[in-house]
């Protein structure tokens, strides 16, 4: 038996089997039922959402021999249906504009549309990646579309409709295929995995579904690749796709938020392991920023698990979020952002990443000390600096926030810096304190 890939094996053969495109199918089926067949259709949408499959089903619908006219439910067993499904019907011509090199062939094929079909009711041209057609082919297509022969239907499929000529688009009936919801992809994967006897954890299925970004083809291809690792778990998947293990990142961020014995050694171990796996320091930093962002979602939008990177981690995220304040997360985010350039431009990005991680642990220790508002003075200072206009930020940043007492903040600078802090800058600092919401009305500058 020839080996079929999962995508080939599970290519939908009927409109009913098509996932996630209900409105569009309703309109297509309505047209088939009433016999209002347009000379040209345009199917747009991201890859793997069912454009090619629908084009083939439509070709069967037009030509099924069990019916004397177009039908929304082709039989799938007659000669026409079978040859079309196999891709060798004489009257259903598939052209992949992206890979076909015989440019003239395409032009001739389109020009030949004038001839009546040999076996079928309709001659159907399925032009995949239609935006890649050569100019000569486009012109032949336009000419044919201006006076379309009654027995011909063109189906243009493309991921990039904006690259088609407006004159072509205006002659087509357009159908926009939607990205398929991750939940639908997930349940399709679960069904197929069960049918194929592939063991996969629910978290792994969820991860594959989310990674496919709305396309079922990519999801199935990933499942196919991963089936060799069966049982498929998050860990095996992370290794397979080289993705940053979200759970490790979350473990790291947890150390910034919850006190833990040996936090420093654990943090360095996680960092080291990620770098050894070949992840770039900047990618790790971005992953950490993402976790902090996800935590803020969990904290402020507790009903939206769909808004985080990996909803399989929603529970631990929510649990950790319960231990943070928005302020704390903003400070963490700011500190990470401040480290980005060092990590990006240094030859020693890994070193700076570890440095950042240690700083975040250290500043955490001062947070756990009883300080007003739950934030250490350095953290409050960071928040204030983040509110300053970018132009004066480097000048003000080296200051040290010494104390806040009854609405007055005292900031010290090294003697040689004092001269450059002008009165206008003191007002800017006061405004930044207000923007940061720290209850400071007045700022006093002193020599360190
Ligand atoms: N809407 C869908 N419903 C069911 N399966 C789909 C759907 N979209 C894609 N697939 C799966 O992905 C494969 C490729 O789909 P295809 O129709 O060629 O997508 P496109 O042409 O939009 O890139 C199909 O064989 C099928 O396994
Ligand atoms: Mg396609
Ligand atoms: Zn049939």
Question: Mean of the pLDDT scores?
Answer: 89
Overall body shape: elongated
Chemical compounds bound to the protein: adenosine-5'-diphosphate, magnesium ion, zinc ion
User: Into which percentage range does the β-strand content fall?
Assistant: 5-15%
- Tally of contiguous helical segments: 21
Strand count, sense and barrel status of the largest sheet are: 5 strands, parallel
* Spatial sequence of strands, sheet with the most strands: 2-3-4-1-5
Q: How many beta-strand runs?
A: 8
Distance between the termini: 82 Å
Give an overview of the whole structure.
The chain is α/β, with parallel strands linked by helices and 448 residues long. The chain has helices at residues 6-9, 22-34, 51-63, 79-86, 103-111, 135-146, 166-169, 182-196, 202-211, 216-226, 234-241, 246-257, 263-276, 281-300, 314-321, 326-345, 349-368, 377-387, 393-396, 415-418, 423-436, and strands spanning 40-44, 92-96, 123-128, 152-158, 173-176, 400-405, 408-413, 442-447. It has a five-stranded parallel β-sheet with strand order 2-3-4-1-5, covered by helices on one side. Adenosine-5'-diphosphate (ADP) binds at residues 7, 10-12, 18-21, 45, 47-53, 157, 180, 216-217, 220.
Topology:
Layout: H1 6-9, H2 22-34, E1 40-44, H3 51-63, H4 79-86, E2 92-96, H5 103-111, E3 123-128, H6 135-146, E4 152-158, H7 166-169, E5 173-176, H8 182-196, H9 202-211, H10 216-226, H11 234-241, H12 246-257, H13 263-276, H14 281-300, H15 314-321, H16 326-345, H17 349-368, H18 377-387, H19 393-396, E6 400-405, E7 408-413, H20 415-418, H21 423-436, E8 442-447
Parallel strand pairs: 1-4, 1-5, 2-3, 3-4, 7-8
Antiparallel strand pairs: 6-7
Helix pairs in contact: 3-4, 5-6, 8-9, 9-10, 12-13, 12-14, 12-17, 13-17, 14-15, 14-16, 14-17, 16-17, 16-18, 18-21
This protein binds adenosine-5'-diphosphate (ADP), magnesium ion and zinc ion.
Magnesium ion (MG) binds at residues 51-52, 128, 157.
């Amino acid at each position: 038996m020839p080996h079929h890939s999962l995508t080939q094996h599970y290519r939908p053969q009927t409109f009913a089997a098509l996932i996630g495109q209900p409105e569009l199918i309703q309109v297509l089926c309505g047209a088939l039922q009433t016999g209002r067949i347009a000379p040209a259709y345009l199917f747009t949408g991201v890859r793997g959402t069912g454009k090619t499959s629908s084009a083939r089903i439509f070709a069967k619908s037009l030509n099924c021999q069990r019916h004397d006219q177009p039908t929304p439910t082709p039989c799938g067993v007659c000669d026409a249906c079978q040859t079309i499904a196999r891709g060798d019907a004489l009257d259903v011509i598939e052209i992949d504009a992206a890979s076909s090199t015989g440019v003239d062939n395409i032009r001739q094929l389109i020009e030949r549309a004038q001839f009546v079909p040999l076996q079928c009711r309709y001659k159907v041209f399925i032009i995949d990646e239609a935006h890649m057609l050569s100019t000569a082919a486009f012109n032949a297509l336009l000419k044919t579309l201006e006076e379309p022969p009654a027995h011909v239907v063109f189906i243009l499929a493309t991921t990039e409709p904006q690259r088609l000529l407006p004159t072509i688009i205006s002659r087509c009936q357009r159908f926009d295929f939607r990205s398929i919801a991750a939940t639908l992809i997930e349940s399709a994967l679960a069904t197929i995995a069960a049918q194929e006897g592939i063991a996969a954890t629910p978290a792994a299925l969820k991860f594959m579904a989310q990674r496919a970004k709305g396309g079922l083809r990519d999801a199935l291809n990933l499942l196919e690749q991963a089936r060799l690792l069966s049982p498929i778990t998050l860990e095996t998947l992370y290794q397979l796709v080289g993705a940053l293990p979200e759970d490790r990142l979350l473990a790291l961020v947890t150390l910034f938020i919850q006190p833990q014995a040996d936090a420093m050694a654990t943090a360095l171990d996680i960092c080291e392991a990620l770098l050894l796996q070949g992840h770039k320091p900047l990618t790790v930093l971005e992953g950490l920023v993402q976790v902090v962002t996800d935590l803020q979602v969990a904290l402020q939008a507790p009903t939206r698990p769909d808004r985080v990177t990996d909803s399989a981690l929603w529970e631990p995220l929510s649990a950790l979020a319960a231990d943070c304040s928005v302020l704390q997360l903003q400070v963490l985010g700011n500190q990470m952002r401040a480290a980005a350039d060092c990590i990006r431009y240094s030859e020693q990005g890994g070193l700076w990443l570890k440095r950042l991680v240690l700083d975040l642990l250290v500043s955490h220790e001062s947070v756990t000390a009883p300080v007003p508002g739950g934030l250490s003075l350095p953290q409050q200072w960071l928040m204030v600096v983040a509110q300053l206009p970018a132009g004066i930020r480097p000048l003000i940043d080296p200051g040290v926030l010494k104390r806040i007492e009854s609405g007055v903040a005292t900031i010290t600078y090294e003697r040689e810096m004092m001269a450059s802090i002008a009165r206008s800058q003191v007002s800017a600092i006061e405004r930044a304190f207000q923007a940061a919401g720290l209850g400071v009305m007045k700022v006093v500058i002193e020599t360190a």
